[in-house]
Design a protein that fits this description.
Blueprint lengths: L10 H4 L74 H10 L4 H9 L4 H23 L4 H24 L12 H11 L1
Helix pairs in contact: 2-3, 2-4, 2-5, 3-4, 4-5, 4-6
């Protein structure tokens, strides 16, 4: 069959037609609706659903008290302070800024998969210090501006490292303008 816009024959003439609808007197039941149950009049007595205790993995007589059951299938076991590396969360977040930025951030992005807190700081470190590296290249002709930028870099590294360490207790993020929002959007999209 040719679907070109300019055809020499009408595509409707060579197309296979559907069979005509059959006119039946009895209507077939809808396959999505359950068959009618004419034996009982109360719909609650005819229910065939198992009891809610049927869906749990626990033994039948185990009552652990209110709020102790795992309703989300293992999500209560997630620890927000776990990391992929055998380091504490605050040390890992600090390494994003201390481990030769922006290379330390890129390294943590490659190896850290569990902690969004560490990944945020790795993204922010990578973005900020890549931009600072480009600024250093632009102003490399002036030794005075290079030294001022170098001192600014050291101050920024110290500030971000301190906040990454201090805010790890409550997972609060210090976001720099533009780069912090961008890093948050990258972490939220993952």
């Amino acid at each position: 069959m040719d679907f070109a816009p300019y055809q020499d024959t009408d595509p409707q003439s060579t197309r296979a037609l559907s069979p005509p609808p059959q006119r039946a007197t009895s209507r077939s039941p809808n396959p999505k609706s359950p068959p009618p149950n004419r034996g009982t009049t109360d719909p609650f007595l005819a229910s065939t659903l198992p009891a809610p205790s049927h869906f749990t993995d626990e033994p039948r007589g185990d009552s652990r008290g209110f709020g102790n059951t795992d309703l989300e299938g293992g999500r209560s076991n997630i620890n927000l302070f776990d990391t992929s590396l055998p380091l504490r969360l605050d040390y890992e977040a600090m390494l994003a800024y201390l481990l030769l930025p922006p290379a330390g951030g890129v390294f943590l992005l490659l190896v850290e998969h569990k902690s969004d807190y560490v990944r945020f700081h790795a993204w922010q470190s990578s973005l900020v210090f890549t931009a600072m590296f480009i600024i250093h290249l632009i102003f490399s002709w002036s030794s005075i501006l290079s030294w001022i930028l170098f001192v600014f870099d050291l101050g920024l590294i110290a500030f971000l490292t301190f906040h990454a360490y201090q805010d790890a207790n409550n997972l609060d993020r210090i976001e720099l303008p533009f780069f912090g929002g961008l890093a948050s959007s990258f972490v939220d999209a993952e």
